[in-house]
Amino acid sequence: MKALLLTAILCCSVASSAATPRANLSGTVVDADGKPVTGVTVMVYHAGVKVGYSTFCPSCYLDCGKRVLTDATGKFEIKDLAGDLWFTLLAARDGYVPKFSNKVDPARTPSVSIKLAAKPPTSDFSGVVRGRVVEKDGSPIRDAVITPIGLNMSAKDMNAHMPVGAPPVEGEHSMYGTVDGLQPIAVTNRQGEFDLSYDKPTSKMLLSVEARAMAPKVVVMESGPMRHSVTLSDGASVTGRLMANGKPVPNALVGLMPVHPGEYADNLKVIGDPYEEIRIGTAADGRFTITNVPWPVDWYVYAKMDSISSLGATSPIEVKVAKDGQYLQTADLVVKPGYRVKGTVLVSDKKPIPEGMHAILSSETVWDSQTVPLASDGHFEFTNLPPGKYIISVSVKGYHEKTPQYGPTPFTVDHNIDGFTTTVYPNVP
Question: Considering the entire predicted model, what is its pTM?
Answer without folding.
Answer: 0.87
